């Protein structure tokens, strides 16, 4: 019987108090939460150029640039008519052959997808046009 008591007393003495260790862990947790910086990146900021109200007309020896309009639901318009994205390259190539000094201007609605602009820019590059500009249509 005395052996059982000794064993029970030894087990009671072997208990480790974890309270100070938990206090240190919680203090370290609070320290890291307070000192951590949380970065909230929502998107890419784009600097839009200011467009002057009164633009000078193009010189007589140069025709107007090739204008491609993109609506909010990604419809593409050239020369006032709706065109398919697959035919954009051939139309740009024809218009560029008529005026080799022209550049392609993509006037895209704010709600249009970037993929539509990329498809138009790729079509213009495949038609050997190197000057491609994106103009936001805020109206």
UniProtKB/TrEMBL annotation:
A GO biological-process term: protein transport
InterPro entries: ExbD
Any single Gene Ontology cellular-component annotation: plasma membrane
Membrane topology value: Single-pass membrane protein; Single-pass type II membrane protein
Localization, UniProt: Cell membrane
GO molecular function list: transmembrane transporter activity
Keywords linked to the UniProt accession: Cell membrane, Membrane, Protein transport, Transmembrane, Transmembrane helix, Transport
Transmembrane segments: 21-39
Pfam families for the chain: ExbD
Main subcellular localisation: membrane
UniProt keyword Cell division, yes or no: no
Listed PANTHER family: BIOPOLYMER TRANSPORT PROTEIN EXBD2 (PTHR30558:SF13), EXBD MEMBRANE COMPONENT OF PMF-DRIVEN MACROMOLECULE IMPORT SYSTEM (PTHR30558)
Family from the record: Belongs to the ExbD/TolR family.
Name of the protein in question: Biopolymer transporter ExbD
Lineage of the species this protein comes from: Bacteria, Pseudomonadati, Pseudomonadota, Gammaproteobacteria, Alteromonadales
